[in-house]
């Protein structure tokens, strides 16, 4: 799938991913009312509102973007109906030709890690048949438990030609409490980056590895260092827009070919209609506001890369 992701990025000219992280507070009242009229103010009603919200945004942006990144917690909070909406969203996005990065941030060991990997990237055996349960193309993985937690994902990636993005330096303010601590005079995030590069050597696509990294847009200088440490890893860059990252901050995450990184924006796109810049669209045209926000993000990043 890394080859497909790179192909999608080249085709669209848009190294961005839309984070489908639908809090109910982002969903316009008319969408919620319609869902509640059919299912009541229930978990099923909330899941239907989420699905309809996601579908409208995907329908208005899929031709501009290479990938989406649904954050599973936003669906899990609504229980089984929420997970059904997650699966429905994933399937629909793949039908539209988008790569799907399941933001699941799993990190465990042994059979538990294998079960996560099989459930999200692989195929589970049921009698004489196998089934792809959630069937994302990539997932995010927490490496805190070491290789024991990551290797089961790599095994499934090898079988299914899918990929992972390993958390290396995250965009949240307190990430440095652990990630910046020095070991042998070097920060932990650099050591994790070296492991990502080593894991990736065994799982190469045409030009980039199936093993990528998550590095926050809020730390551009660290991005420069990690880009050098992981030359063949695709970098998933959260923190754009709402968290403060801008195109000019991101040039060091890319390689000289203009590839090697994909930048995520979640509420900056899906809740764009709430921003003053896109208020002219109003709630009724929330998906049109999302399309405009995608175009502006593409222009911002392209402009920054062209001036580098």
TrEMBL record:
Enzyme Commission number, as recorded: 4.1.1.23
Pathway membership, UniProt: Pyrimidine metabolism; UMP biosynthesis via de novo pathway; UMP from orotate: step 2/2
One Pfam entry name: OMPdecase
Domain of life where this protein originates: Bacteria
One annotated GO molecular function: orotidine-5'-phosphate decarboxylase activity
Name under which the protein is recorded: Orotidine 5'-phosphate decarboxylase
Enzyme class, first EC level, given as a word: lyase
Keywords: Decarboxylase, Lyase, Pyrimidine biosynthesis
Reaction catalyzed: orotidine 5'-phosphate + H(+) = UMP + CO2
InterPro entries according to UniProt: Aldolase_TIM, OMPdecase_type-2, OMPdeCOase_dom, RibuloseP-bd_barrel
Name of the encoding gene: pyrF
Domain spans labelled Orotidine 5'-phosphate decarboxylase: 15-281
BP term (GO), one: 'de novo' UMP biosynthetic process
Family: Belongs to the OMP decarboxylase family. Type 2 subfamily.
SUPFAM superfamilies, per database record: Ribulose-phoshate binding barrel
Residues forming the catalytic site: 105 (proton donor)
């Amino acid at each position: 799938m890394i080859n497909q992701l790179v192909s999608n990025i080249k085709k669209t000219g848009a190294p961005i991913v839309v984070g489908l992280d639908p809090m109910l507070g982002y969903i316009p009242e008319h969408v919620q009312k319609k869902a509640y009229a059919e299912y009541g103010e229930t978990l099923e009603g909330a899941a239907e509102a989420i699905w309809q919200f996601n579908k409208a945004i995907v329908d208005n942006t899929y031709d501009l973007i290479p990938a989406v990144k649904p954050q599973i917690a936003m669906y899990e909070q609504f229980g089984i109906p929420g997970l059904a909406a997650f699966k429905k969203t994933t399937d629909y996005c793949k039908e539209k030709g988008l790569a799907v990065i399941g933001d699941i941030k799993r990190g465990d060991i042994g059979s538990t890690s294998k079960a996560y990997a099989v459930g999200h990237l692989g195929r589970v055996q049921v009698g004489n048949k196998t089934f792809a349960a959630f069937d994302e193309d990539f997932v995010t993985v927490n490496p805190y438990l070491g290789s024991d937690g990551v290797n089961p994902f790599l095994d499934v990636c090898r079988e299914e030609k899918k990929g992972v993005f390993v958390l290396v330096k995250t965009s949240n303010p307190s990430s440095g409490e652990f990630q910046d601590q020095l070991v042998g005079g070097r920060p932990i995030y650099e050591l994790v980056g070296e492991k990502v590069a080593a894991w990736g050597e065994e799982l190469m696509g045409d030009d980039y590895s199936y093993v990528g990294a998550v590095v926050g847009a809020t730390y551009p200088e660290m991005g420069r260092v990690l880009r050098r440490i992981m030359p063949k890893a695709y970098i998933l860059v959260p923190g754009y827009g709402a968290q403060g990252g801008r195109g000019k901050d991101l040039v060091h995450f890319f390689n000289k070919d203009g590839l090697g990184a994909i930048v995520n924006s979640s509420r900056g796109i899906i809740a764009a209609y709430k921003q003053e810049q896109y208020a002219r669209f109003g709630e009724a045209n929330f998906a049109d506001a999302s399309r405009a926000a995608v175009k502006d993000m593409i222009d911002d990043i392209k402009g920054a890369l062209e001036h580098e």
